[in-house]
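Sample pair:
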Amino acid sequence: MINLKPFILVLFYLIIFFLSVPQVKAAYNWIYPETNPHELLKQLNITSAMGITIDHAGNLYVTNESINEIRKYDNNGNLLLSWGSTGVGDGQFNGLTWGIVADSQNNIYITDPNNCRIQKFTSTGIFIKKWGTCGSGDGQFNTPRGLAIDSSNYIYVADRRNGRLQKFTSDGNFITKWGGFNVWGFQAIAVDQSDTVYTIELYAFLIKKFTASGTLLTQWGTNGIGNGQFLDPRGLGFDSFGYLYAIDVTRSDIQKFTTNGTFLTKMGNLSVGPATPFGLTFDVSNNIYVTDRANSRVQVFTPASPPSTPNVLTVEPQIFSTKLRWASSTDNVGVSYYTIYRNGALIATTSLLEYTDVNCLPGSNYIYTISSTDFSGYESQTSVSQNVYTYPSPYVVSASKNAAGNTIEVVWQGDASAYQVEQGSGNNWFSGTTYIKDNITCGSTYTFRVKARNTALVETNYSDFVSITTDACQAAYTPPPAPVITEPTPVVVIPTPTESTEPGSGSLSFSGVSNVKYIAISKTADFSQVSWEPYTDTYQLPTDYSGNLFVKFRSPEGGETTPITVTPPAKTESPTTPAEPVSPSTPPVPVKSGDTNQNGLSDKVEQATGIITTKTETAILISGGGKPTPGTFTVQPTTTANSTPALVYTSPVTKKTYVMDTPQEVKQVVKETGVWVNHKTATATVTPKKLQGRILIDTQDRGRAYYANSKSGKKVEIKIKK
């Protein structure tokens, strides 16, 4: 009985295929993107070109399906030799397709589909060996198609109608197999630089990725005309940058992918691209060779130039992160994105010129490299590796006191979510990179260190210690020493009352006083309006004191005593009757040479004259000589310009009365009268502002004391120096 199950299954897949193929095929022929990095370089006219490969010497081998022949060309397209014919013998073929590869010794391996075998030749076409028979056992084949070879010269065969892939040594020894997914099986095979195996399953519309031992890693693809979809996938190949190219005969295009299946771009053009591409390969310059069976040609396209390698500018490690910055790459079609690798593994892509890796651990070593990828999908070489060590703990920048000196501010660097300071914060965690220590004391040393943790609660070690010493404490305030006063004894001296003694006359002095610089005397206990005066041994009693006086002393350092109460003796008045007041309209009593003073004592007057010198003070210039000066002298009010009392002199020589208000006038009188002969000069200052009345000249003790009445009625003592 005939088993119809295989035929029914074949019919089912044929129906799916024809339903999936668009009615207008030309609409999908050789589609180029808006920016096509590939340009047609040259073209070889080869009838029914299907399979293609390039050996390590740069020679090109192409299979001719129609006559079962292999042709060899140099890299300039010159035909070097050809071999093969239709048949079952060694070096003969039946149904050549795209299965052809070269090993590291430039030996050539070719699938012989309808003879169910693999044949091996030298680069000059000399037959070496063959293996395989028709069947489904190990080392047997049912229409083998695609071939691939890895870095160890292991041969991978797409055993199409057995739906599997078989792996052999270069001598044809069977190693392993995997597959059995569908009856149409694998069409093409490619191996990348790490010996990972990629296959195409025709009507599953899939590209599958395996380890070298057959473990499935990933797969991608669906039926359709979109990017990453397929209608009739047949050929696979890798460029030197590690990108995978997949040929779709029905779509008449070649799609480009990363090794993880990410679509990058596609190439093709109805006017220059092959209408039925089957095989592809790359030379050492990364030029793309594509067979076009329908148009009996091989077209060669220039490669898209990869972008320039990014130049890493800065690497800034933190505790839990590392920030990288780089200069932009250049490219003929523009850079699409940058890829960041850490310790050789891809961790991110970005279109920016910086990236922060936030998945670092404290105190760890990482190696970063960066590549750029252009819009055609080409990736540059990776940058120079950057060896980075993350901080094991926060980096304390400073610890400083504020201007007032009552707080310490600790500042550190870090990228953690929380920190803990070992000095004042206890076990509390807080955000931010600043800590303020309050309530510090003077003359103390404070030591801080900081640790950090991230959101995953991974903690660092503590940082190094940082110390700061506060300013030395200020000495406690010590008031300045007070004057040393050992029971000061006020000594009040009152003159013996006489006819000339004025009320309030007398002096004040102290004993038992030391370390005193200033003194203040007040008539009341309130010193707020009293001036401090330099301390001397004796002080004139105030003329208007009444009762007690109050005295304070101040030391050079500023210390003060409490007020000392001084009780002077009661005022004494003269027992004699005061002189009669002189009426302003009556001339003052003259004092002349030979007169007796008012105490009844006799002596000759030797006084000569006096002069008013300022508006604010009255100064009397006293002159005397060896002979009595004739004439009378008085001091009386005048109406002169400066409104000060004037000296009036009546000369018996000239019979004139002179009013002397200025020194110039005195000199004129001297010149006219000639009374100033052999004279001596002495000065005295009178404190009252104005004098009026009479001048009394006491010559009891010649040249010692003179008295005059002032406007206020106070006594004024005039001391005369001989």
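The chain is about 5% helix and 40% strand.
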